[in-house]
What we know:
Elements (H helix, E strand, L loop, with lengths): L11 H14 L3 H12 L23 H11 L12
Helix pairs in contact: 1-2
Amino acid sequence: MTVSITIENLDADLLERLRGEARRRGVDVSVLAKKLIEESLPPAGEERPPPFHDLDHLAGTWSEKDVAAFHAATADFEQVDEDLWK
Length: 86
């Protein structure tokens, strides 16, 4: 069974963001809206696990120095070791 719905009272900003995202994905706004609804709801008969918040207190706590140190320490992760793929 197919049902059509109408979403009323979208503010201009939200509508423009929807249109922009639809353009970015190369789909119609209605296709994007359906996809976003599908992504936000768990499959029938399943429950979505609650979000974790155990690391929330760390968000936004790194200084520029911490970020630079992290990037320096993980820079090697960007390198591909060609010998491993032989």
